[in-house]
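Consider this today:
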Amino acid sequence: MKTLITRMTLFGVMVLAGCSTNHFPEPKSMEPMVEFWERVYSEWNENQAVYHDNRYLSVIYDVVPVPNQDRRDFLRANENILREELVDMVARYQNKEKLTRNQRHWVKLLKKAGGEAAIYGAPERLRYQTGLKNNFRKGLEISGRYLPEFKAIMKRHNVPEEIAYLPHVESSFQGRAYSHVGAAGMWQFMPSTARDYMPMQRNVIDGRLDPFMAAEGAARYLGAANQRTQAWPLALTGYNHGVGGMVRAKNQLGTDDIGKIVWQYQGDRFGFASRNFYAEFLAAKRIADNSDSYFPGLHPQKPRKVDAITLNAPIKVRDLANALMISEIDLIELNPAWLKNIQINQAAIPANIPVWLPKGTAKRMPQDIGRVYDKR
């Protein structure tokens, strides 16, 4: 009975959280996708693999424990075995032969999700996803340090405050996250895009690694994306797929309904990741808005307390630390965008970018060195 009550309570939270907002509607056609990612983030942990249909995410074939060693080999071997069973299921169904118990269940799921036609392509659509429950929980705790400022940044740029939750999807709020394609930081900017939106100088500074600089960049990028797409769901999906691609999708289908686009658009590179990006965001937002219901006993980090300045002219870390009577280590820790050449005093800190200082330090700053950072 306790389990039943807990599930009913959580369901009520999910229904309330699932209500559409003006900026981020939740199309009914996408609800199975949102629910799938909600479970990835809050139910399945990193040592569980979910084998599912990559188009109809309500079709889940199996959830299996994953060993700590030889994980990839295990996952792929299990995938091959399951794909053979699906091939056998299709053959039996076509020939009107008796199905196994599992196959009968899978056929029922597929028919409900996509009609009889969904059965025949099932082997090719098989995919696995490992859970992210523990990482998401950690991200919720880490986010306490960042969300107040992130939301303020979004508000300053006339961007919906909910976009502050995007790092849950991109990096689980890990400031040093790197992707295999070259994206970096909490907001996962590619170098080519980052150069237009934040300080970037080879071997000197990488604004992607400073969560707050990158948040400013994300706000500006998404604001511009919304101007082009005229729809926040498309702008947000463009963060993953590219804004030009979403404009083409809108023009080709004659709609800005993200629910229709994710099901109907067949553009180049609009694959699983792009189709699911908005659903992942909605799931992350749903959980973050009701984090205590999903993860009781959280211990969020406290917001940072810093001063912010900009320099009148470039200066080396050693000289700035001496002028402010603080340690170089403290300065470097507060400014993760500074790369090695700045850290070892081979290059100067550039002027006219935000520099974070320990709280109360800015009042000791000589006027010829810098000024209080104007966030506008």
